Amino acid sequence: MSVKNALILHEKFLNVCSHDFLNCITPMLSTTEMLKKKKFGKHQKRMINLIQGSVQTLHELINIFFDAERMTHGLTVLKLSRVQVDNVASAAIHDAKAFSNQKKVHLKKSVPKRLFLIADETYLAKALSYAVNSAIMMAPQNGTVHVRAYRSGEYVALSVSSARMGTMKPSFNLEPGTLKRCRDASLYVAKNIIKLHGGKVKTAKGQTTFFLRA
User: Range with the lowest mean pLDDT among 3-12, 23-32, 70-79, 88-97?
Assistant: First the structure.
Protein backbone atom coordinates (compact mmCIF):
# COMPACT_ATOMS: atom_id res chain seq x y z
CA MET A 1 0.00 0.00 0.00
CA SER A 2 1.37 3.44 -0.93
CA VAL A 3 1.59 6.33 1.53
CA LYS A 4 -0.92 8.22 -0.63
CA ASN A 5 -3.51 5.43 -0.33
CA ALA A 6 -2.79 5.09 3.38
CA LEU A 7 -3.49 8.79 3.91
CA ILE A 8 -6.77 8.52 1.96
CA LEU A 9 -7.86 5.59 4.14
CA HIS A 10 -6.70 7.50 7.22
CA GLU A 11 -8.96 10.42 6.30
CA LYS A 12 -11.93 8.13 5.63
CA PHE A 13 -11.41 6.37 8.94
CA LEU A 14 -11.34 9.67 10.83
CA ASN A 15 -14.55 10.80 9.13
CA VAL A 16 -16.46 7.52 9.49
CA CYS A 17 -15.73 5.88 12.81
CA SER A 18 -12.79 7.22 14.78
CA HIS A 19 -14.53 9.14 17.58
CA ASP A 20 -17.33 6.69 18.37
CA PHE A 21 -14.96 3.75 18.37
CA LEU A 22 -12.31 5.36 20.57
CA ASN A 23 -15.01 6.63 22.92
CA CYS A 24 -16.07 3.04 23.59
CA ILE A 25 -12.50 1.81 24.19
CA THR A 26 -11.71 4.34 26.95
CA PRO A 27 -14.54 3.13 29.25
CA MET A 28 -13.41 -0.46 28.68
CA LEU A 29 -9.92 0.34 29.92
CA SER A 30 -11.20 2.20 32.98
CA THR A 31 -13.68 -0.61 33.73
CA THR A 32 -10.97 -3.28 33.71
CA GLU A 33 -8.75 -1.11 35.93
CA MET A 34 -11.62 -0.76 38.42
CA LEU A 35 -12.40 -4.49 38.31
CA LYS A 36 -8.76 -5.40 39.03
CA LYS A 37 -9.11 -3.72 42.46
CA LYS A 38 -12.06 -5.93 43.45
CA LYS A 39 -11.82 -9.39 44.99
CA PHE A 40 -12.15 -12.14 42.40
CA GLY A 41 -10.89 -15.66 41.96
CA LYS A 42 -7.68 -16.48 40.14
CA HIS A 43 -9.46 -17.40 36.90
CA GLN A 44 -11.57 -14.22 36.91
CA LYS A 45 -8.53 -12.02 37.49
CA ARG A 46 -6.77 -13.76 34.62
CA MET A 47 -9.73 -13.06 32.32
CA ILE A 48 -9.77 -9.38 33.33
CA ASN A 49 -6.06 -9.10 32.50
CA LEU A 50 -6.66 -10.73 29.10
CA ILE A 51 -9.50 -8.32 28.33
CA GLN A 52 -7.43 -5.31 29.35
CA GLY A 53 -4.47 -6.42 27.25
CA SER A 54 -6.66 -6.96 24.18
CA VAL A 55 -8.26 -3.53 24.45
CA GLN A 56 -4.91 -1.80 25.07
CA THR A 57 -3.38 -3.43 22.00
CA LEU A 58 -6.34 -2.38 19.84
CA HIS A 59 -6.20 1.14 21.28
CA GLU A 60 -2.48 1.44 20.49
CA LEU A 61 -2.97 0.20 16.93
CA ILE A 62 -5.74 2.74 16.29
CA ASN A 63 -3.68 5.57 17.78
CA ILE A 64 -0.84 4.72 15.40
CA PHE A 65 -3.31 4.89 12.54
CA PHE A 66 -4.25 8.44 13.53
CA ASP A 67 -0.62 9.56 13.34
CA ALA A 68 -0.17 10.39 9.65
CA GLU A 69 3.48 11.33 10.16
CA ARG A 70 4.32 7.69 10.91
CA MET A 71 2.80 6.46 7.65
CA THR A 72 6.12 6.23 5.84
CA HIS A 73 8.17 3.48 4.23
CA GLY A 74 8.57 0.31 6.30
CA LEU A 75 5.26 0.36 8.15
CA THR A 76 3.10 -2.75 8.13
CA VAL A 77 -0.46 -2.90 6.78
CA LEU A 78 -3.03 -4.69 8.93
CA LYS A 79 -6.47 -5.63 7.60
CA LEU A 80 -9.38 -5.78 10.07
CA SER A 81 -12.88 -6.81 9.05
CA ARG A 82 -15.99 -5.28 10.62
CA VAL A 83 -16.88 -8.62 12.25
CA GLN A 84 -13.43 -8.96 13.85
CA VAL A 85 -13.48 -5.44 15.29
CA ASP A 86 -17.03 -5.94 16.60
CA ASN A 87 -16.05 -9.25 18.20
CA VAL A 88 -13.07 -7.74 20.04
CA ALA A 89 -15.06 -4.79 21.38
CA SER A 90 -18.24 -6.75 22.18
CA ALA A 91 -16.38 -9.58 23.91
CA ALA A 92 -14.45 -7.13 26.07
CA ILE A 93 -17.63 -5.37 27.19
CA HIS A 94 -19.53 -8.66 27.68
CA ASP A 95 -16.80 -10.25 29.81
CA ALA A 96 -16.29 -7.09 31.84
CA LYS A 97 -20.03 -6.99 32.61
CA ALA A 98 -19.93 -10.62 33.72
CA PHE A 99 -17.57 -9.68 36.55
CA SER A 100 -19.52 -6.70 37.88
CA ASN A 101 -22.97 -5.29 38.54
CA GLN A 102 -22.11 -1.94 37.07
CA LYS A 103 -24.63 -0.06 34.96
CA LYS A 104 -25.01 -1.24 31.38
CA VAL A 105 -22.53 0.14 28.90
CA HIS A 106 -23.89 1.10 25.51
CA LEU A 107 -21.32 0.12 22.88
CA LYS A 108 -21.51 2.26 19.75
CA LYS A 109 -19.70 0.77 16.78
CA SER A 110 -19.33 2.36 13.41
CA VAL A 111 -16.80 0.34 11.44
CA PRO A 112 -16.53 0.21 7.63
CA LYS A 113 -16.75 -3.17 5.89
CA ARG A 114 -13.00 -3.23 5.24
CA LEU A 115 -10.76 -1.29 7.58
CA PHE A 116 -7.00 -0.94 7.06
CA LEU A 117 -4.78 0.01 9.98
CA ILE A 118 -1.17 1.14 9.66
CA ALA A 119 1.14 -0.09 12.43
CA ASP A 120 4.89 -0.24 12.87
CA GLU A 121 6.61 -3.52 13.69
CA THR A 122 7.06 -2.73 17.39
CA TYR A 123 3.30 -2.69 17.95
CA LEU A 124 2.80 -5.65 15.64
CA ALA A 125 5.31 -7.60 17.74
CA LYS A 126 3.39 -6.72 20.89
CA ALA A 127 0.09 -7.86 19.38
CA LEU A 128 1.51 -11.18 18.18
CA SER A 129 3.24 -11.90 21.48
CA TYR A 130 0.09 -11.09 23.42
CA ALA A 131 -2.05 -13.48 21.36
CA VAL A 132 0.30 -16.41 21.91
CA ASN A 133 1.04 -15.68 25.56
CA SER A 134 -2.66 -15.24 26.34
CA ALA A 135 -3.35 -18.69 24.93
CA ILE A 136 -0.52 -20.16 27.00
CA MET A 137 -1.81 -18.49 30.16
CA MET A 138 -5.27 -20.01 29.58
CA ALA A 139 -3.94 -23.50 28.82
CA PRO A 140 -3.82 -26.18 31.57
CA GLN A 141 -0.47 -27.47 32.83
CA ASN A 142 1.19 -29.66 30.20
CA GLY A 143 -1.56 -28.64 27.78
CA THR A 144 -1.17 -27.80 24.11
CA VAL A 145 -1.77 -24.48 22.40
CA HIS A 146 -2.25 -24.71 18.64
CA VAL A 147 -0.82 -21.89 16.57
CA ARG A 148 -1.66 -22.09 12.88
CA ALA A 149 -0.68 -19.95 9.92
CA TYR A 150 -2.32 -20.17 6.52
CA ARG A 151 -2.65 -18.17 3.33
CA SER A 152 -5.86 -16.32 2.61
CA GLY A 153 -5.53 -14.84 -0.86
CA GLU A 154 -2.47 -12.61 -0.77
CA TYR A 155 -2.39 -12.48 3.03
CA VAL A 156 -1.00 -14.76 5.74
CA ALA A 157 -3.49 -15.26 8.58
CA LEU A 158 -2.72 -16.44 12.12
CA SER A 159 -4.99 -18.48 14.39
CA VAL A 160 -4.37 -19.26 18.08
CA SER A 161 -6.38 -21.73 20.19
CA SER A 162 -6.23 -23.71 23.42
CA ALA A 163 -8.48 -26.33 25.01
CA ARG A 164 -9.87 -23.93 27.60
CA MET A 165 -10.58 -20.82 25.57
CA GLY A 166 -11.46 -22.27 22.16
CA THR A 167 -10.19 -20.74 18.94
CA MET A 168 -8.94 -17.16 18.96
CA LYS A 169 -9.69 -16.19 15.37
CA PRO A 170 -7.21 -13.91 13.62
CA SER A 171 -7.82 -10.27 14.55
CA PHE A 172 -5.52 -9.16 11.77
CA ASN A 173 -3.74 -10.51 8.71
CA LEU A 174 -0.07 -10.18 7.87
CA GLU A 175 1.10 -9.23 4.42
CA PRO A 176 3.72 -11.72 3.19
CA GLY A 177 7.23 -10.33 3.39
CA THR A 178 6.60 -7.76 6.12
CA LEU A 179 8.43 -9.80 8.76
CA LYS A 180 11.71 -10.21 6.84
CA ARG A 181 13.29 -7.04 8.19
CA CYS A 182 12.45 -7.77 11.83
CA ARG A 183 14.92 -8.78 14.49
CA ASP A 184 12.66 -8.35 17.53
CA ALA A 185 12.45 -11.56 19.60
CA SER A 186 8.65 -11.80 19.49
CA LEU A 187 8.60 -11.28 15.73
CA TYR A 188 11.23 -13.98 15.43
CA VAL A 189 8.69 -16.27 17.09
CA ALA A 190 6.02 -15.09 14.64
CA LYS A 191 8.27 -15.84 11.67
CA ASN A 192 8.84 -19.35 12.95
CA ILE A 193 5.12 -19.86 13.46
CA ILE A 194 4.52 -18.95 9.83
CA LYS A 195 7.29 -21.31 8.71
CA LEU A 196 5.87 -24.17 10.75
CA HIS A 197 2.32 -23.92 9.34
CA GLY A 198 0.61 -25.85 12.10
CA GLY A 199 3.29 -25.87 14.78
CA LYS A 200 2.45 -26.39 18.45
CA VAL A 201 3.27 -24.24 21.45
CA LYS A 202 3.55 -26.36 24.61
CA THR A 203 3.67 -25.30 28.24
CA ALA A 204 6.11 -27.01 30.58
CA LYS A 205 5.21 -27.60 34.23
CA GLY A 206 6.52 -24.83 36.47
CA GLN A 207 7.75 -22.73 33.56
CA THR A 208 6.40 -19.60 31.91
CA THR A 209 8.47 -19.94 28.75
CA PHE A 210 7.31 -21.84 25.70
CA PHE A 211 8.80 -23.62 22.71
CA LEU A 212 7.70 -24.58 19.21
CA ARG A 213 7.35 -28.06 17.77
CA ALA A 214 6.91 -29.02 14.13
Answer: 70-79
Provide the domain count of the chain: 2
- Per-residue pLDDT band at 174 (split at 50, 70, 90): very low
Q: Express each pLDDT in 9-38 by its tens digit.
A: 555 555 555 555 555 566 666 666 666 666
Q: What are phi and psi of 115, to 5 degrees?
A: -120, 125
Domain that holds residue 108: 1-119
Looking at 75, 90, 119, the residue that finishes a domain is 119
